[in-house]
Amino acid sequence: MAARIEPIAGRYVHLTLGGRHCRVYFEEAGGGIPLLCLHTAGSDGRQFRHLMNDAAVTDHFRVIAFDLPWHGKSTPPVGWENEEYRLTTAAYVEAVMAFSRALDLDRPVVMGCSMGGRIVLQLALDHAADLGAVIGLEAADHQTPWYDTEWLHRPDVHGGEVCAALVSGLVGAPAPHEHRWETLWGYMQSGPGVFKGDLYFYRVDSDFRDRVAGIDTRACPVHLLTGSYDFSCTPEDTLRTAAKIKGTEAAIMEGLGHFPMSEDPARFREYILPVLDKIRAARSTA
Amino acid sequence: MIERLFELVNADAALVRRGRFLTTDFLVEVGDEPFHISVQDGRIASVTRGPAAARPWRFAIRASAEAWREFWQPVPRPGYHDLFALTRFGHARIEGDLLPLMANLRYVKEVLETPRRLARSA
What we know:
The complex is a heterodimer.
Chain A: E1 9-17, E2 20-29, E3 33-38, H1 49-52, H2 55-58, E4 61-66, H3 89-102, E5 109-113, H4 115-126, E6 133-137, H5 159-167, H6 177-188, H7 194-204, E7 222-227, H8 235-244, E8 249-253, H9 260-263, H10 265-285
Parallel strand pairs in A: 3-4, 3-5, 5-6, 6-7, 7-8
Antiparallel strand pairs in A: 1-2, 2-4
Chain B: H1 5-10, H2 13-18, E1 24-30, E2 33-40, E3 43-49, E4 59-63, H3 65-71, H4 83-88, E5 92-96, H5 99-103, H6 105-113, H7 116-121
Parallel strand pairs in B: 1-4
Antiparallel strand pairs in B: 1-2, 2-3, 4-5
């Protein structure tokens, strides 16, 4: 009997980011409208593996997820050993757009989660003409910090253990055991200080409260989906943000937390498939 | 519920192993009632109810009886499902020396969540 082999293919692309050479890993599956997926802080593109194995998605979308430099199978740039990693809004926008150009993606739909959900708002502001739409999962224009990020990178506390233990509560209470722990495994594997460095973007360099009203959803449609169990980006944070962006479609996903695509793929698809259908319908009539 | 930690934790070999590097005393307040939890190499050595004057603890977790009742539901509702969700929304407070807590966070969180199993099996 033939082994089960998934349709996901992984490759490496070489980019220049911030003037430095970066070897970036990405995976993709399917064909059609490019759906570029952005992982959460301190994790990597594996979070989208269920979406890439879902024919209801891949029959119509080319699903692509890349690991930011420092994450997953992407290496940090040469010289990393003497640096403190810190993601900024400008560097994040540059990475997404450089990746999209390198793969020659035609107006990709960009879907990001958590910090990826935050950056799609800036992408919609800066690059509306280059994008088909954005989907922000667990996205808002700002968050109130709920713990001290110093705990994430210090020699007397194991980074992988504490990162996973901190975010464990962000998984929805009903999430299946298998998917809860696979999601947390991603956090246990993050490099030292990488989650903390991502949170520099998330906590310090991305207060978009005064900017998001400038997004033109006629040029770049915006969809926001947030889990009811998310206490980092709360449903209230998302709905407040949606109210500022005219034409935004927002929904709260009951029973889901901060990692919907990986923590409970079956429940997530009930919410994401109608959004993807709507994007596809709008694209075919455009 | 909190008195049951002694049997719930010590009967769980994986949980005891997870806490094998932790020996400490911490305080859990359920409303006005203090409970001193003594941990020895991941095992619960004792759970002592009452004010026990001048008894030391490294860190304390304080919440109302109502908040703990919600927290210990088999599938708690949003906001009551995690120790830090409780603190984020003002239902609980954490005080004291956080190093033993953060260095053993998965263990301590799972210890505090063990009473959920009683409701599940009831």
